[in-house]
Specification:
2 domains; two-stranded antiparallel sheet; 4 strands; globular
């Protein structure tokens, strides 16, 4: 029942002044992802423009519009129920990690094997088809996992994703073109963190994009070409203008089932990744004051992803990292709905091609870095102070996965791989590749389990810690953690190690006398002379 004042039903505000900031901030985040995705489709997969702009982008636009409108509706319901006007809608859009996984791990190999990008597209559609059902079914067990998992584990592994795969690429882009990137970062940070207001309340995201375009195009006058933009690129972009609505792609979906064996190897573990990521992001929103039902969120992601898939979109929808950031900017309900309308315009009218030609991507990169900063900070700010070591433990697998990803890409370009170079030779220069491979496998789950064990040990809840270690043993045995693919006995020695730790922790829970010195480290720290 909604809160009432003097007998009048409370009506939440659909648009607040801060929604402008959040709209330009989140809208540019979505724009960056769409631009990146379009680049992957056109230049990595060499997908024909007729499919990119006529089939995939319109279907993707429909999916994201349905998602953002639904989460605006959920925010409206929550605001009405609680009588608050500070409720912020969950941000959502294309899953960024999945964007690269489905493109580079599923679609590209099939395109290269068949010399047909359309078959790669069809395989991607089947991948999302299965992911969608995993999300919908997983929504019913996710609330239980949230109840038993320490917040430090949920937010810690989320911070790991944010610091590595979300923040590092934009940070590197900023300092590759610092005249644009660092300037735009300063424009954003002084407003969103420092509270400086631009004249007329102009959103910082818009100021940053305008400044980036001004510098990029201005540099062309002096032959510097900082943003890599050109007039010819703008003229070429107009060839992709038009009106394209999404059309059913059932035939393409079913055609991709012949690649089912390849697809399931990644679909199952990444389906679990989706569950954990969505739980993390819902937990993040609750820590910021907005409690959303996990089951409904996961089910919604699954349903809209399935609709997008059946219309031709090979990328899955997800609730995004960053709710506290958009809420901190003043975002409420309207920014989410407005973003959905923006996406329809961008994707159905071919506007993305023009934007690729006139906006330097580096001008938008600081927004992603800012979101990464906030999520990393939130993991420490909204969890018990004593759990900080567990959060750091959650970060480690993501750093390993990120380092391995960069290394594999560089070696592939050089026409070799780590095995050919020799693990011993790499170790001589400090690169412990097998360690990166093992620790970084299934990083999202590995980080969660390690942090959950650590947080429970810190709280001296040894039975709970043992349960998470046992779960780690099972997940590792089947390749969901510390492995590169699902299977049987994927990393048996690591699984055995988790099992030994589980037995040890369970023994401590049943026989406390075995651990009389558990409080000694604290006393030792307190009594250690200052250095």
């Amino acid at each position: 029942m909604s809160t009432t004042t003097a007998g009048v039903a409370f009506r939440p505000r659909l648009w607040a002044p801060g929604d402008w900031n959040a709209f330009f901030g989140f809208g540019t985040n979505i724009l960056v992802n769409m631009l990146t995705l379009t680049i992957l489709l056109r230049f990595v997969l060499q997908m024909p423009d007729a499919i990119v702009f006529g089939r995939i982008l319109p279907a993707m636009g429909l999916m994201m519009c349905l998602s953002t409108m639904y989460y605006a509706y959920l925010a409206y319901r929550l605001a009405k129920k609680t009588g608050r006007n500070d409720v912020c809608a969950l941000p959502s859009g294309i899953s960024v990690p999945h964007m690269f996984i489905v493109t580079l791990v599923i679609m590209l190999p099939i395109k290269l094997a068949t010399n047909d990008p359309v078959q790669g597209w069809e395989a991607g559609l089947v991948w999302v088809f299965f992911q969608s059902f995993i999300l919908m079914l997983g929504g019913f067990i996710a609330p239980l996992i949230r109840r038993i998992t320490p917040r430090a584990a949920l937010l810690g592994t989320l911070a790991g994703v944010s610091i590595t795969f979300i923040s590092m690429t934009p940070a590197l882009q900023i300092f590759m073109t610092p005249v644009i990137g660092f300037t735009c970062l300063a424009i954003i940070v002084v407003n969103w963190l420092g509270g400086f207001k631009y004249p007329g309340g102009i959103p910082a995201g818009l100021v940053a994009i305008a400044a980036g375009m001004l510098i990029a195009w201005g540099s062309n006058l002096f032959g510097l070409n900082y943003g890599g933009l050109s007039g010819k690129g703008v003229l070429d972009a107009f060839s992709n203008f038009g009106f394209n609505v999404p059309l059913p792609a059932f035939g393409h979906v079913f055609a991709g089932f012949k690649y089912l064996g390849i697809i399931l190897v990644t679909a199952v573990p990444f389906g679990i990744y989706d569950l954990v990521e969505a739980m993390d992001n819902v937990e993040s929103a609750e820590a910021a004051g907005d409690a959303y039902p996990t089951t409904r969120v996961l089910t919604a992601d699954g349903v809209v992803s399935l609709i997008g898939c059946l219309m031709g979109n090979p990328y899955i929808n997800a609730v995004y990292i960053g709710h506290p950031g958009w809420k901190g900017m003043g975002g409420r309900i309207g920014y989410s709905a407005a973003t959905g309308l923006m996406v329809i315009v961008l994707s159905w009218f071919g506007v993305i091609a023009l934007l690729l030609a006139i906006v330097p991507v580096v001008a938008i990169s600081p927004i992603l870095l800012y979101i990464g900063m906030l999520i990393g900070a939130q993991a420490f700010q909204t969890t018990p102070k004593g759990h900080a070591p567990a959060i750091v433990l959650a970060l480690a697998p993501h750093v390993a996965a990120w380092a391995k990803t960069l290394m594999d890409g560089a070696l592939q370009i050089a026409g070799t791989d780590a095995a050919k170079l020799g693990f011993d030779n790499l170790a001589k220069v400090g690169v412990l590749y097998p360690g990166l491979q093992t620790m970084g496998g299934g990083a999202i789950l590995t980080g969660l389990v390690l942090a959950a064990v650590g947080a429970n040990v810190i709280d001296k809840k040894f039975a709970n810690a043992a349960a998470f270690a046992l779960a780690g043993a099972v997940l590792t045995f089947f390749g969901f953690m510390h492995g590169q693919a699902v299977g049987i006995a994927v990393s048996p020695t690591v699984a055995a190690a988790y099992l030994i730790v589980a037995v040890f922790l369970f023994a401590l829970s049943r026989y406390p006398a075995l651990a009389p010195a558990l409080a000694m480290p604290e006393r030792a720290i307190a009594s250690t002379p200052a250095e």
